[in-house]
Amino acid sequence: METTRNSWQRALALGGGAASTLLLFFFALLSVISGWVETIRQFSSYWPFLLSLAAGFGLQVSLFIRLRDIARHQSGGGAVVAVSGGTSTAAMISCCTHYLVNVLPVIGATGFVALVAQYQIELFWVGIAFNLAGLAYIGRKLLLASRHMKEMMSS
Q: What's the pLDDT score for residue 21?
């Protein structure tokens, strides 16, 4: 059985990888849509939101992996990670969705993209709220599982 310290190190490393992957996805997608210079400009403008979303997602992944290590089976927390991770990704990408008008000239898409662009800060906050809710949910599950494991070990 893995030691607690090794389990946490592994979980944090995988969570850091998940956060990095989310940021790389943002940079890759936006670079393809808008070019590198615009990507850097957007990141410079919105970095507190983007890093918060990525960090929250990475922490959720870390907590979920640690919870899975304790429980040794899948729990309902995976759905929370998927939903809030998807929300984080959507919020990060929304900051530059208005550039899709140049790439996707589909009737009706212009209105949708303009709406998303108009509310991008609000979408960032929604993503952060989902991150916090996911962290609270998985954190609570991890706390309960840890307590249960300690009780079982002391019995």
A: 93
